[in-house]
Amino acid sequence: MADDLDNLAVAAGAAVAAADSLAALEDQRVALLGKNGSVTGLLKALGGMEPEARKARGAAVNHLKAALTEAIESRRAVLEQSALAARLAAERIDISAPPRPESPGAIHPISRTMDEIAAIFGAQGFTIRQGPDVEDDWFAFGALNIPGHHPARAMMDTFYLRAAGGHNGRPAVLRPHTSAVQIRTMLSETPPIRIIVPGRTFRSDHDATHSPMFHQVEGLVIGTDITLAHLKGCLIDFLRAYFGLPDLPVRFRASYFPFTEPSMEVDIGWNRKTGEIGAGTDWLEILGSGMVHANVLANCGIDPGAYQGFAFGMGIERLTMLKHGIADLRLFYESDTRWLTHYGFSPLNPASLTEGL
Ligand code: PHE
């Protein structure tokens, strides 16, 4: 090959190898192989040569062009590869970084107790019903065998609503107990019935253990062969599961509710001095219960000769305070995040039946 071509090949090869960016390489390509490039110039010059000389020179120049083209392409591949590697390094996301310490929030103890109660009764085959906070006084009292003059109405410190306009011409009340939903359920469903009713309730009362708004869970079971023994077994199982004490002493004590007959208050064993549940020799009243009164069944169109059932009701705040040693009920509603952080529950650890057992 002619010396000038040898020199060009060496210089051009060095320049291509030295190009340190795709832009610099492109400049080299244009300088060598572009329209006015040096190799293009050599090819153009072939036109003015004698045929013999042109043949040899042409082959050499074309050989040089092919060699340079190949050198440029392989340099381009190297530069593209390193550009990609640089980008991957720069845009890398470090998934090993620890999470920022953000608080996931907490489940309020009242919600937590409701979840636990639902899990325990759910395992006994109960399903959940709900009803309105504002009730017609027939659902709250009348249908529950509490006539207008009955002292139980005064005992419940009911809020009557003047402006709400009533319902079917009857006074409207903020429901003082969830028992109203017993009536709604018996009117709209046919037995067998096995439900619990968690929800808000209202009474005009306010101190360390009473709040004008509080929560109850009602229970109702109706069937053709339901006895007091079912009531007892159901509630003993519930209380032992809820407190996580398989041997928790449970006592049934005769009592009175207009809507059940017979009626029973349910007590659990505890130590009054230390507050320890399941220990000591004292009894603590924990819920009300009884066999659904025949008048209540009849009021709901259920034949008391064919069907019986039992009902129970309990205060959620009280159950929560006892289980977690919370002394003042008013703190439940103050939304103090320090209190919630201390007494709240992780949303990542949902209530389950087995946990308390
Ligand atoms: N409703 C009653 C109360 O609020 C509790 C209860 C419910 C008692 C069902 C017996 C049966 O005190």
Walk me through this protein's architecture.
The relative contact order is 0.11. The chain has 357 residues and is α+β, with helices and mostly antiparallel strands. Strand 7 (250-257) and strand 8 form a beta hairpin. The chain contains twelve helices and ten strands. The strands form two sheets. Strands 1-5-6-10-9-8-7 form a seven-stranded mixed sheet, with helices on both faces. Strands 2-4-3 form a three-stranded antiparallel sheet. Helices cover 41% and strands 20% of the residues. It is rod-shaped. The structure holds phenylalanine. Residues 177, 179, 218, 257, 260, 288-290, 311-313 line the site of phenylalanine.
Features:
10 strands, rod-shaped, binds phenylalanine, 357 residues, seven-stranded mixed β-sheet, single chain, alpha+beta, 12 helices
